[in-house]
User: What shape does this take?
Amino acid sequence: MFNEVFHITAQEANALASEYFIRVCGFDREGGKIRRMELEGMATKELISSKININAIASAYPKDVIRRGAVEIDGLTFTCEAFEKIDKGDVKSVYAYILTAGVYELEPEAPLMKQLYADLWGSAAASAGLDILKARLSGGLAYTTHGPGFDGMDIGRLENFFRLLDAGKIGVELRAGRFMVPLKSCAGLLISMENRKGPL
Assistant: This one.
């Protein structure tokens, strides 16, 4: 698999995205005020439903790219504290990916709370899409994931993902200051493990 594009439909992501949204907003708590806020938050979903556009691009690499506590692909090095703990003998494949959930901004005159809820729906859609992508890439095997800014991987490694992957195919670009556009985007490595099931 090289620069393969994955499309994740809004229908696929709906249940997971709703779970993420409810959790991050605190709508899983009791109270009349919470229920009123929940109604407004869920109503905002209708405003962003046409904006949900989850796409990813990924490439697969053999386990030999794991060397000396780092991942080295096509001359690019990814270092991360967690790599020191990985037993190369357990590894099946290494995947590099970039995922985006699209753009979730409302018109500037929209009420502030609706803008906030729209942004949170975008984050929820990205999280749901990432869960689905991980399941597709891992094929049900156990896996670990690592990305710039997490698990000791320097944020500067973000540029490496854009050297490896043709992010333009899914409409993602890296701007000055190391931030991705659309903002609801992420990048990382997924390492799948032989003969083991479920996320580690």
User: Anything to note?
Assistant: The CA atoms of residues 142 and 196 lie 5 Å apart. The chain has a mean pLDDT of 93.
